[in-house]
Specification:
The complex is a heterodimer of chains A (about 300) and B (about 100). By secondary structure, chain A is α/β, with parallel strands linked by helices. Chain A is built from 12 helices and 8 strands. The chains are: A alpha/beta (about 300), B alpha+beta (about 100).
């Protein structure tokens, strides 16, 4: 595993001057992912904050080959690139070892790009798909997505007299990917560089389809001060709202077990999208959310016990 | 700030040259700027690894400064700085 000093020796593959919000977690994720890859790499990105802000015409912030075609097909586009590479390599026209990484936001992964992702994983292309999950359609001003957690207020499901934020629970995409029986699926966070770079390094050593779901705090959509991005990511892990784990050929490993599991309130309180939950009449909903997190954490620990080493 | 390009300079189709965003300076978004304390910095490089704008300059494993052309002043570098009791990076008002 590379230390932070070793990682810093490589030239940055994402330049400054891109137009992401100040304090955004997505470029942090991208930089850390690219730092962990030693080989030449080709990137595809789904439409989303990352794609529109890093490639505003006529500028591009990417120092690596970058391709974008549409919202729903980053995984399909990557499959094509990878298949062309495999063919050219077979013909002896390319000799280099090249790695393929597709990025997608939660909208382009959980909802709109789900079928192309599912197809690419099933066909077994040698690629890594990284989902930067900020839990709503942040690029188009915070509409609810399949990744939005229950109780979060969004512009299409705002908290008010009728509803208290999103009614349904979040889709568990990492588990969906585990169900595809791929060699490597993992969950990481923007706020633990060691965990993320380690997982990317591991994914790069495995041939076949790989998936990493990375939680990305969004200062604009979640409503917190912009310097708290890393801190909030860490709190999400410490409260077990977003456990860090990996599944290698069906074998579950929990990457980090918090010594003192913090109450979920620690994660919800700093965010304005959960502000309404702290009204006295929503106490019941708040305790249900905590119970849901506890249940999922217990289930994950059981899985690690049953399907662990 | 980079100048707007005329039609002769624009790339054909939508093919862009790699890394050209570096010509676009986002430093003027900033209302507070991070200032490094040379004496107390321990070169842990947390500011480098968590900077969203690739604005922390590192040479041979040492943090050598902040590129104010790109820094948007988010303050993540200050919040991740582990130096105690006074952080080695401080956010200072631009005015």
């Amino acid at each position: 595993m590379a230390t932070i000093k070793e990682l810093s020796l490589q030239e940055d593959r994402l330049t400054g001057g891109h137009r992401m919000c100040p304090g955004c977690g997505a470029p942090v994720i991208v930089r850390q992912v690219l730092m962990a890859v030693k080989e030449p790499v080709v990137i595809v990105s789904a439409t989303g904050c990352l794609e529109v802000s890093t490639t505003i015409f006529p500028y591009s912030a990417w120092k690596v080959p970058f391709l974008h075609s549409a919202f729903e097909n980053s995984a399909a586009t990557m499959s094509g690139v990878e298949a062309a590479y495999t063919s050219l390599k077979k013909q002896g026209k390319i000799k280099d070892e090249i790695r393929f990484i597709a990025f997608g936001g939660d909208g382009g992964t959980y909802d709109i790009g789900f079928q192309s992702l599912s197809g690419a994983m099933e066909r077994g292309h040698d690629m890594l798909y990284v989902c930067y999950d900020n839990q709503a359609y942040m690029n188009t001003s915070i509409q609810r997505s399949g990744a939005t957690p229950r109780g979060a207020s969004t512009t299409t499901e705002p908290a008010g007299k009728v509803k208290q934020g999103k009614v349904m629970t979040r889709k568990d995409l990492t588990e969906c990917m585990v169900a595809h029986n791929i060699p490597y699926a993992a969950q990481s966070v923007c706020g633990d560089w060691r965990d993320l770079t380690k997982k990317v390094e591991k994914a790069m050593s495995i041939r076949g389809p790989k998936f990493i779901n990375v939680l990305q705090p969004c200062q604009l959509g979640w409503g917190y001060p912009m310097d708290k991005t890393v801190e909030l990511g860490k709190t999400a892990v410490d409260t077990c709202f977003w456990p860090l784990y990996e599944v290698e050929n069906g074998k579950y490993t929990i990457s980090y077990k918090p010594k003192d599991k913090k109450p979920l309130v620690d994660f919800l309180k700093p965010q304005s999208r959960f502000r309404h939950l702290f009204k006295p009449e929503n106490a019941q909903l708040l305790s249900e959310l905590q119970a849901d997190v506890d249940k999922k954490w217990a289930l994950l620990q059981k899985k690690a016990e049953c399907f662990g080493a | 700030m980079a100048q707007d390009l005329g039609w002769k300079e624009l790339p054909e189709g939508d093919t862009l040259k790699a890394g050209t965003a570096a010509q676009f300076h986002t430093g003027d978004w900033r209302s507070k700027k991070p200032v490094k304390d040379e004496k107390t910095c321990i070169n842990c490089l947390f500011c480098y690894i968590y900077c969203p704008d690739s604005a922390v300059k590192v040479q041979d494993g040492k943090m050598i400064g902040i590129d104010y052309n790109y820094c948007k002043g988010c303050g993540i570098c200050e919040s991740v700085c582990p130096v105690k009791p006074v952080k080695a990076i401080k956010m200072v008002s631009e005015r």
